[in-house]
Task: structure prediction
Amino acid sequence: MRILCCVKRVPAPGAKINVADDALAVDATHLGFATSPHEECGVEEAVQLVERHGGEVTVLTLGPPEAAEQLRYAASVGAHHGVLVTTDGSAWDPQRTAAALVGAIRGLEAADGPFDLLVFGNESADSGGFQVGIRVAYALGRPIVNGIKGIEADLEAGDGVVRARREIDGGFEVYELPMPAAVGVKEGINLPRYPTMRGRLASKKLEIVELVPDAEPGGQSLVRLHRPRETVTETEILGNGPEAAAAVVDVLEELGVA
Amino acid sequence: MAELPEKAKCVVIGAGIVGNCLVGHLAKLGWTDLVLLDKGPLPNPGGSTGHASNFIFPVDHNKEMCLLGEQSANQYRDLGLSVDSGGIEVARTQERVDELKRRMTSAVAWGVEAHLLTPEQVKELVPFVNTDIVLEGFYCPTVSVVDSLETGTQMRNVAVNGGCHVAANTEVLDIITEDGPNPGDRTVKAVVTDKGTIETTYVVIACGVWSNRVANMADAYIPLVPAVHQMADVGPLDILAETNNEIGYPIVRDMDTFCYERQSSGSMEVGSYAHRPIFHHPDDIPSNEESALSPTEMPFTPDDFDLQMEQAIELMDMLGDAEIKYAINGLLSLTPDAMPCLGELPEVRNLWSAAAIWVKEGPGMAQVVAEWMTFGYPRVIDVHGADVSRFYTEERGDEHIWARSAEHFNKTYGIVHPQEQWESRRNLRVSPYFSRQQALGAAFFQARTWERPQWFESNADLVDRYEVEGREVEWDARWWSPITVAEHLNLRENCGMVDLSAFQIFELTGPGAVAYADYLAVNKVDVPVGRSIYTPWLTPDGGFHSDLTMMRMGAERVRIVTGVFDGGRDEFWARRHMPVDGSVAFANVTDQITTLGVWGPNAPHVIGALTSQDLSQAGSPYGSLVDVELDCGGRTIEAVLFRISYVGDTGWEIYAAWDDGPALWDALMSVGADYGMRPTGGGVYGTSGRLEKGYRLMGAELESEYNPLEAGLARPKVKAAPFIGKEPYLAARESGDPAVSMCVLTVEDLTDSQGRKRYMQGGNEPILTQDGRRITDSHGRVSRVTTAGPGPSVGKHLLMAYLPVELAQPGTDLQVMYMNELFPVKVAGTGAVFDPDDTRLRS
Result:
């Protein structure tokens, strides 16, 4: 199988995200960066598919030069090729991003043949537009299903079929997509492996193909960012051991549950 | 949560291992009314303690670090929060194999069980080590792994049970000070937090990587920088998981790659001190909320770690296929001289530092600070090397802190020579003769911030004249030159001139100056004007704080002259104990006065050529100060001649105005040429000349653990006037003979097992009995080399060491261990081995 995974470099989750003074960007002073979590699962799924069926995984990202770190990370867990579609690091709207990806994918396929499967994350962890994968698949004329939490490939059926599973209330749906196809995967589809030390070292040797995109801005523009109000919770240690019992009773009485 | 109190006796800022242990120790010492603050949550507020690797290797060449590490390890053990995992330092290079021999020597000095292992023996203990690349191992069975978070919690609870108020999630915004009690002084008054203000008598900053920022709130400095130590946790690994243990295999320190491998349950922690120095300003450390993990677990930068991964896989192949589950750029504290910052800050009274302390030293150093606050001085051991008042102004700024920390970070597991010199931040302070000394090829050694010539290449001809041998082994010859021996012999035969401008000089003036000077000093300062005294200053417990010279310059004026290594500490001590009635004023006049020492049989001729002053013992008696006018090439320079000697030959220290220095140097060099006088370096002044006379040096022979009786510096009588440490000093005198005596020993044979001559360096080499046993006294203090160096005029390599009195007899045969080999030594006595009757001094 030839699989293409599209990933995005996003601020590492877990920390309070500050907004820059002009409210148009994230203040990255204290931030680490990571692969958007759905897409990290996408890479893991792609690697597992080629482990089962043979083939190669190409990882593509659109972003600043620093996004090469995410390509190497993907290589450290088993991806074979890396493509960096370079930007100046400013936020691109989904239409423009999709147009740039379509251009890049067409170029890659013209050179090396079509990808059997395009894997996207369901949505990015930072801007959460939910649309790049769909726009790309539509432009390339390939079927896509989003929200996928299970993939099986059947290479014997016709020109090859992807069976994609997604959860619904009370059950799940299974789609059959003829290859070449596209999917948008969700966290939970697998538990992504960590890179091994040898994997990390091997990823240093990854040759990254750099492409310069040619895509006009779309209709969506960023007005401003703001941080939602946070609910602050405070934990108070009431004491240790049996001595804490009285304080616990006081709290329960205060809450009206005792 | 209870309200923050409005008043407290002492506020401790920082609830990591140090702050927690500090309040625990203070409570044990009877302190109540304590408040412990931290801006983060408990039990892990987000400082360096929370991500520490929590292991303690018990051997360090440095006495303070080693003994406080041992003290800390024992405190963890006493709480049952420690496991002796054992640990092995492995050598990949011959240079490291030699270093492990030095480690063995230090292990014997400090009484730590240690063994050198063959590669096969290493593999028996750690079967997954690739012994193809290991030449040797250094194994300590008592390497321990500790639970620093739980230890902190338990120590904090000791304080809480004594009434300590603990306030987590409480950020310090300011430290308020007030002027006084003396002009120029400030005293701590209150701590302002986001939850309220606490008026307090004492504040202790135990904030780890944030300490300097908090000190800066009070316009004070704790010179440290938050630095990255990378660590990756890789696993799972079956062989580790099968131990069913947090730590089932000895920790391996891969010394030549500056890395360690430490089991953590089913995983291996690989930590590195090999990557590029990565520093952060404390203002740039994220808050708890802004941190994905914690403020001091910063995002991992894998590019910096790749080489260490390769090397780790080389040593333990199984690590290559283990997953990197957790990796951080963990922050820890580095200081410009790689020592902690303990004690009261010189800028603000009652504002204390307990910072730049790692988990391995935390409980012990917290005890040090608690004792210091309680008794006026630490009782565990002497900590002059960690005293925060040691820093000069130039050492407190970020430029210096960052440059020096960058230089020594990669030496954390390095092989550091006892005489090793810094490369960065040189020429910060130079004497008026610097350009002249450069022209003479001076090899400069830096004493804190001051450059001092150690020897002069211009004297290379003397090496042939005196047929001085070189040293065969590179380690012994490193930071040494045979020229220094030749300069010594020339001084003894002719004359030598030594630049002493790094002396730190203070003056006490005012109606209370002499009485105050006497309060500081053991010996009587109230001597006639124009006389001087040598004297110890004692701690309240009667040990050495300082040894220095005090000069009666006038009826109400006393000059204090001390060594450059202790200038900061001595200035702080002198200012800190001053009366508050305005009767004494203090001034640091170091920058105004330059000093040259001229010694040797021809010294009277050299100086006599510049002055008509009677330089005989009648006209310029030993210990006297004589005002003179020196004819320096037609220019008259006013100077003070102080007849004294630290090298054992007659001569003077010449004190003159700083700006007159160059003319004075030129005149002395000019007339000195006729008398064989040579510029002479610190190798003679500080080591060989001093050693032959058995003169003691602060920080080497003299520490707070020893008293003047033991050091052989007690006078027959004790003055009537009160002085700091008088009562314990009197008690020691009344209790009979001291437990130990400071001795000079001669090395009787320098030949090692390979037939090479070896030269001990004065790096705490242990003195052993003839049957190879360690020597300790009734207080548990070990006999070790405090200074070592050549005795060119007596033809022996000389050592100084404290010995139990029964061994401190001339002629006693003992041994010294050096590089894990034994060499025979003989006790020469407690005084001089050269000119013991001081005939030359009196000539």
Remarks:
- DSSP finds 21 helices and 39 strands in chain B.
- Chain B touches chain A through 31 residues (CB under 8 Å).
